[in-house]
Amino acid sequence: MKYFVVFSFSLLILGSCGVKIPYTTQVRDEFTLDNEEKMSKVQFFISHTIILNQEIRSDNSNTTANGTLVVNSSSERESVIIPAGTRCIFDSFGSKGEIKVRFENGDNKVLPFMSKTESSVSKRFFFDVDWNLQGGPKINYGEDIYKVDLTRGSARTAHLLVVRKKLQKTKRKERVVKGMKI
User: Fold this and answer.
1) Could you say which of 17, 39, 76, 83 would form a disulfide bridge with 90 (CB–CB 3.0 to 4.6 Å)?
2) Among 65, 62, 103, which residue's Cα sits nearest to residue 81?
3) Are 108 and 142 within 8 A, CB to CB?
4) What are phi and psi of 15, to 5 degrees?
5) How far apart are CA 14 and CA 6, in angstroms?
6) Which strands, in side-by-side order, build the sheet including 138-141?
7) Would you say 113 and 101 are in contact if contact means Cβ atoms under 8 Å apart?
8) Which residue, 56, 107, 111, 116, is CA-closest to 81?
């Protein structure tokens, strides 16, 4: 009996866990996630790490009273690192049908994800920036422009994930028949 209780408890825990799967057009259609109200109830995750870098430079050149040339330069760097598996929530739909998700609070702190054109029916929603931009891909995040870091992280392959649970209820009834005597 003791082993049965332990086995049942472990089965309950393992059975209640969900599996992270790619958010695809097939999943969207299966659960009819076609409006903002339904999408806002879904917990999304990011599949790969995305790193955004920003560098602000200011250069000044002056002369002193005795005629010496002085060059001042300063730079400030900021990196936004979104590790793989980070939770995010739906923010809005974009004008091209992309999904904008939010990882933190703040104005315009959203990242777009778009389904790529593939021949398959089930299309994943990948991180959407202009990868062919001269100088590397850039994106507006918050009120600033960040450059997508292609050397660290895996921004090109980053796509949205959702947790899917499979619930199955089975009712079972057993009884033991004692038999009949004459």
Assistant:
1) 39
2) 103
3) yes
4) -75, -25
5) 12
6) 69-82, 50-63, 144-148, 138-141
7) yes
8) 111
pLDDT digits (tens, 9 = 90+) for 106-149: 999 999 999 976 556 679 999 999 999 998 999 999 989 999 99
CB neighbour list of residue 121: distance below 8 Å, 6 or more residues apart:
25, 26
- The answer for residues whose C-beta is within 8 angstroms of residue 131's C-beta and 6 or more apart is 137, 156
Q: Which amino acid is at 37?
A: E
- Which residue matches tokens 């790969």? 48
State residue 120's pLDDT score: 62
2: enclosing H helix or E strand: helix 2-16
Whether the Cβ atoms of residue 104 and residue 141 lie closer than 8 Å to each other: no
What pLDDT does 62 receive?
A: 79
Give the separation between CA 168 and CA 143, rounded to whole angstroms: 47
d(CA 113, CA 106): 19
For the CA atoms of 31, 28, 26, 112, what is the dihedral angle to 10 degrees? Answer: -160
> Model's pTM, two decimal places?
0.75
